[in-house]
């Protein structure tokens, strides 16, 4: 009897801990113990993240910057009626309008190649230039512009630089530096499924890189995260992403083939749910350090955590009929999702970006996903060589110039 009781207690502790690990920010509100454990986990796991306190005021300030940039902040009830999901649509058109309202410009400029960092020279003959930048500046720097520049634009993460032309110089923000001319993109929106260890406003690097090349973005928080209500669960996360996806189609008038659903780590599994369910409509997919399944990640951990995760993995699933009747829960099995796709649609693109020496994922996780997706999609795999000593899994893959150049080539060719 005592042994049974001890096993029951051990199982309950395991179930509690796996929810803490999987739904970090979503479980943060549970109580002081949860907050302490999540902060401890993030100190150990996400060494690149100095905002481990998950301070609501800090999170709100990140979102406010995007809102002041022109982002539309919206709320939509999930299909199961168990949560309200906050999302933000950040379009190039609205950001351009906001910049122009403040007296600025956001334009493409042909430049001469230069070895001097943060100084760009306007090309004498733009027709012969191979280098281009997207730059934001104001011809007349008013007080209103200075406030907007320092409190909003400079906070997004774009490069502060100097533009030199005809013996003059101007302070600018470089949103992107292109070393070759890419085709002018048609309308496209990148639907971001972030890591459960973050909120959407914290993904500044991802936002600045994609908005910087003039791509629309849709960002959202899973249920239980910041202002999104409800209780986190695997099925709930899928429905949250699907809710926002339908908003893009029906409220914001994007066509399915204009949508790129993207995700990091577990967010890649959430994005794969959308990709595989709506594959026939032609949506695209980008996974960054995505795993084949959550169980494979658990099995890759040291004991006793691997054992605890295996006996408790069921705790991530919802038991509510409002969710179970709408979505299959497979313990975030990304590989199985892609295996179920049978219709070949080679005009749809899947991109898998993986970090070498990733200590969290089993070896060749990305390669297995790539091979599976390539049977029905036009698929690509890009390897990021990390310089991160502690945990390459959380390295910023788009900071790698080779990765970014190849990625930009792929998405530009489609759009």
Structural descriptors:
415 residues; alpha/beta; Rossmann fold; 2 domains; 5-stranded mixed beta barrel; 13 strands; 37% helix; 21% strand
How would you describe the overall organization of this protein?
The protein is an alpha/beta fold and 415 residues long. The protein folds into two domains: 2-92 and 183-414, Alpha/Beta hydrolase fold, catalytic domain (Rossmann fold, 3-Layer(aba) Sandwich), CATH 3.40.50.1820; 93-178, no CATH class. The chain has 14 helices and 13 strands. The protein has helices spanning 2-22, 32-45, 56-68, 92-101, 143-151, 204-212, 234-250, 266-277, 294-299, 305-312, 321-324, 334-339, 365-373, 401-414, and strands at 72-77, 84-90, 104-112, 119-122, 131-138, 159-165, 168-178, 189-193, 216-220, 259-264, 284-288, 349-355, 378-384. An eight-stranded mixed β-sheet has the order 1-2-9-8-10-11-12-13, sandwiched between helices. A five-stranded mixed beta barrel has the order 3-4-6-7-5. It is globular, with a radius of gyration of 22 Å. The relative contact order is 0.12. Mean pLDDT is 89; it is low at 47-51.
CATH architecture identity of the largest domain: 3-Layer(aba) Sandwich
Please describe the biggest sheet, giving its number of strands, its sense, and whether it closes into a barrel. 8 strands, mixed
The overall pLDDT, averaged over residues, is 89
Number of strands: 13
């Amino acid at each position: 009897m005592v042994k049974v009781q001890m096993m029951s207690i051990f199982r309950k502790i395991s179930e509690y801990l796996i929810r803490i690990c999987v739904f970090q920010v979503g479980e943060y509100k549970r109580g002081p113990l949860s907050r302490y454990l999540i902060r401890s986990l993030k100190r150990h796991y996400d060494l690149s993240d100095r905002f481990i306190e998950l301070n609501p005021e800090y999170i709100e300030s990140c979102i406010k910057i995007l809102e002041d940039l022109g982002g539309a902040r919206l709320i939509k009830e999930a299909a199961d009626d168990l949560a309200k999901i906050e999302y933000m649509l950040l379009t190039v058109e609205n950001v351009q309008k906001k910049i122009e309202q403040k007296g600025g410009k956001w334009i493409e400029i042909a430049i001469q190649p230069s070895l001097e960092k943060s100084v760009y020279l306007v090309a004498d003959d733009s027709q012969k230039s191979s280098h281009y930048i997207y730059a934001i500046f104001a011809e007349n720097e008013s007080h209103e512009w200075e406030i907007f520049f320092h409190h909003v634009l400079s906070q997004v993460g774009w490069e502060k630089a100097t533009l030199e032309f005809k013996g003059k110089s101007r302070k600018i923000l470089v949103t992107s530096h292109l070393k070759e001319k890419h085709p002018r993109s048609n309308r496209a929106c990148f639907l971001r499924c972030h890591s459960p260890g973050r909120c959407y406003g914290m993904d500044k690097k991802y936002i600045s890189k994609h908005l910087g090349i003039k791509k629309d973005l849709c960002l959202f928080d899973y249920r239980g995260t910041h202002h999104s209500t409800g209780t986190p669960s695997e099925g709930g996360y899928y429905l949250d992403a699907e809710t926002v996806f339908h908003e893009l189609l029906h409220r914001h008038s994007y066509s399915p083939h204009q949508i790129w659903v993207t995700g990091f780590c577990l967010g890649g599994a959430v994005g794969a749910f959308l990709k595989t369910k709506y594959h026939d409509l032609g949506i695209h997919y980008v996974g960054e350090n995505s795993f084949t399944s959550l169980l494979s990640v658990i099995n890759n951990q040291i004991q006793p955590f691997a054992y605890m995760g295996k006996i408790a993995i069921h705790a991530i699933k919802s038991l509510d009929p409002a969710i179970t009747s709408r979505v299959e829960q497979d313990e975030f099995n990304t590989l199985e999702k892609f295996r179920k796709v049978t219709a070949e649609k080679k005009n749809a693109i899947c991109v898998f970006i993986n970090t070498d020496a990733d200590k969290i994922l089993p070896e060749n996780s990305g390669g297995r996903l790539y091979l599976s997706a390539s049977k029905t999609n036009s698929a690509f795999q890009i390897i990021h060589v990390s310089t991160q000593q502690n945990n390459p899994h959380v390295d910023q893959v788009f900071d790698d110039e080779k990765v970014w150049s190849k990625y930009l080539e792929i998405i530009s060719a489609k759009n």
